[in-house]
Amino acid sequence: MEDLLFELQLAMPQVILGVINGAFYALLSLGLAVIFGMLNVINFAHGAQFMMGAFVAWMLLAFLGIGYWPALILAPLIVGLVGVLMERLMISRLYKLDHLYGLLLTFGCALVIEGLFRNNFGSSGQRYTPPREFQALNLEIGDFFLPGYRVWVLIAATAVCLATWLVIEKTKIGSYLRAATERPQLVQAFGINVPLMMTLTYGAGVALAAFAGVLAAPIYSVHPAMGANFIITVFAVVVIGGMGSIAGSIVTGFLLGFLQGVTEVVYPPFSQTVVFVIMAIVLLTRPAGLFGRA
Amino acid sequence: MAESMALDRPAATGAPMLAVQGLEAWYGESHILHGVGLEIRQGEVVTLLGRNGAGKTTTLRAIMGLTGRRAGSVRFEGRELIAARPDQIARQGIAYCPEERGIFASLDVTENLMLPPVIAPGGLSLDEIYTLFPNLKERARSQGTKLSGGEQQMLAIARILRTGARLLLLDEPSEGLAPVIVQQIGAMIREIKQRGFTVLLVEQNFRFAQTVADRHYVMEHGQVVDMVENGELAASMDRLHEYLGV
Ligand SMILES: Nc1ncnc2c1ncn2[C@@H]1O[C@H](COP(=O)(O)OP(=O)(O)O)[C@@H](O)[C@H]1O
Ligand SMILES: [Mg+2]
User: Fold this and answer.
1) What three-state secondary structure class fits B215?
2) What is the CATH number of the domain that holds B88?
């Protein structure tokens, strides 16, 4: 019994680290799910938009002296606006074509965006120091120490995921979104400007990615490839949860982060692979995903 | 041809509410409507009869701007709508109830009912809707697609009665429903006519159409080929049988 407790205490940091990663998976796959549901576009630029969120926060601080709290609102707004322009100027022209074209276009956008940032800022990371006040949230239980900022990330990510879910499932705007996901033409024939809704939905999904990026900035170094590293796992999460399922993407994101953490304790070499093994199993047994509608 | 028939009618009371002239529509490369012409006056219930594939559904969709490409003229209350988007057309006061009913699975009955935004005053209140369709109140929290076929049809019509739209396009509301439900739908259409709604009703079943409509247009091969006043229906039976192949 004593042994077990001791083991658990050793395992805690890894598992919590996993859950924090899970919070990012949840935020990112949630944005992907919202975009895919409404626009039928697999947004491969999501990782680049996450990175832009982190970079905008860093630039706001480095060049304008604007700190973390304003950046948490401003960066998603700015990057969301870039998303709105991308949708209007490029993505909206592809809706009549197969999914594949949207995927290729957004993949191309991701490469261009990352290239631009690499040219301007180099490949090495920029440090982003979070405000001191987060130290107040520091968690210390015995030998176990969790920096306050990570506690905040868990709280903020969970709150934003929940709020997004509530908006989609419980509000009038959300009912438009759900209905337009099913039958966009009919919803438009009821007098709702569906093309505008699609633009704003893309902007909102991108803003979610950028919000995750700002949250991530103080934890990971801010560098052009930070999104690319994350997004591969996030796409696996989306496939496991079921493309387009809102609640599914949130739950799956946290769950897989947790699972990665546990694997890190039990058999570390496997921790980077476990998500993809699960993805393969899910694809073979439930191709629509755990929460997807077949 | 259709236009000249419209002009032959006894003098209409003022300009028509909806005037469709030379309406052409395409699905991709297929040219489906070839110059559809029809007119509806304020307060009328007019049906669009015709065999399967004649282009009745496409006509309603083209009026709403839901076909990919369309040309010709759709004038509603004097405004030309041929270049307008579906949402702009809806906001002028036209509401559409599709053949497949279009009940949303991810919305419950109340959400389905409240989905179409109110575009003008004069629609039915929620109380009036529930009086007309008591089942919808009982099943308020059910998933939309869990309703029976008849209830789904009622819901599909009920939700466009709230919006203040003055012209309703109903696509085969009686299709696939038990006779007793068809009768209820007939009664409901007469009731909404009483309340001043104007209705363009697509039907294949002209026995049903006869019980609700003032006039009937007949479609064939993407054109309106004939028009019959409801009073002349009995005298025109042979002609209709030929058109409809019944
Ligand atoms: N989405 C579509 N794409 C291509 N052709 C279509 C489509 N919908 C209908 N059609 C064709 O258009 C013609 C008219 O169909 P429709 O308007 O549905 O007839 P109706 O409602 O009178 O039965 C038919 O020949 C049908 O095959
Ligand atoms: Mg039809």
Assistant:
1) strand
2) 3.40.50.300
